[in-house]
């Protein structure tokens, strides 16, 4: 019985991602974040928002919070995607209640599901009407102003994952 070749890929940095089989991925850093001194529940609880700076959809692969100064108060800080700067349809896709009572580096997103059922959030392109804003909200009515932290997101352009020009056949084993 011959050993089948499942996939042969040659990487050539001079070729495009469509031609080489590679994808771009990069980290985005949001330094110097703080929490609010008093956040009333109800209404707009956004403390930070940022529209996607690129004109392309980004799949968020990983998210890290680097807490440099803790705050003993529970600020119930969520990180998610919203439709606009005012937080319309905001979610907590990236982090649901940041634990801010310890200093360190924290992984925010759930680990990949073994069955392949965990999806990753897609930060929509600049100017899109849905999920184009990264939003950090503070839902707890507490003074968490001592908290100092940085957010890091590892993203890949969604278009790099969609190459439909190539189709691989199934493996046949004799």
Write up what this structure looks like.
This protein has 174 residues and is mainly beta. It has one domain (27-158): Sandwich (Jelly Rolls). 2% of the residues lie in helices and 34% in strands. Strands 1, 3, 6, 7 and 9 form a five-stranded antiparallel beta sheet that branches. It has a four-stranded antiparallel beta sheet with strand order 2-8-4-5, with no helix packed on it. The protein starts with 16 loop residues before the first helix and ends in a 17-residue tail after the last strand.
In brief, what are we looking at here?
With 174 residues, the protein is mainly β. The protein has a single domain, classed as Jelly Rolls.
Into which percentage range does the β-strand content fall?
A: 25-35%
CATH topology: Jelly Rolls
Order of helices and strands: HEEEEEEEEE
In the predicted model, the low-confidence regions spanning at least 5 consecutive residues are none
Entry keywords:
4-stranded antiparallel β-sheet, mainly beta, Jelly Rolls, 5-stranded antiparallel β-sheet, 34% strand, elongated, 1 helix, 174 residues
SSE inventory with pairings:
Elements: H1 17-20, E1 26-34, E2 46-51, E3 58-69, E4 77-82, E5 95-98, E6 104-107, E7 122-123, E8 133-138, E9 148-157
Antiparallel strand pairs: 1-9, 2-8, 3-6, 3-7, 3-9, 4-5, 4-8
């Amino acid at each position: 019985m011959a050993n089948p070749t499942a996939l042969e890929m040659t990487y050539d940095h001079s070729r495009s991602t469509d031609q080489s089989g590679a994808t771009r991925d990069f980290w985005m850093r949001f330094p110097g974040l703080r929490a609010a001194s008093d956040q009333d529940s109800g209404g707009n609880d956004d403390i930070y928002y940022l529209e996607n700076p690129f004109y392309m959809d980004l799949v968020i692969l990983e998210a890290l919070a680097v807490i440099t100064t803790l705050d003993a108060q529970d600020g119930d800080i969520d990180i998610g995607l919203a439709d606009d700067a005012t937080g319309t349809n905001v979610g907590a896709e990236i982090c649901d209640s940041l634990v801010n009572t310890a200093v360190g580096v924290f992984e925010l997103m759930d680990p990949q599901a073994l069955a392949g059922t965990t999806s990753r959030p897609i930060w929509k392109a600049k100017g899109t009407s849905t999920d184009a804003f990264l939003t950090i909200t503070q839902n707890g009515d507490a003074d968490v102003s001592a908290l100092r932290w940085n957010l890091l997101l590892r993203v890949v352009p969604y278009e790099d994952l969609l190459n439909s020009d190539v189709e691989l056949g199934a493996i046949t084993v004799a």
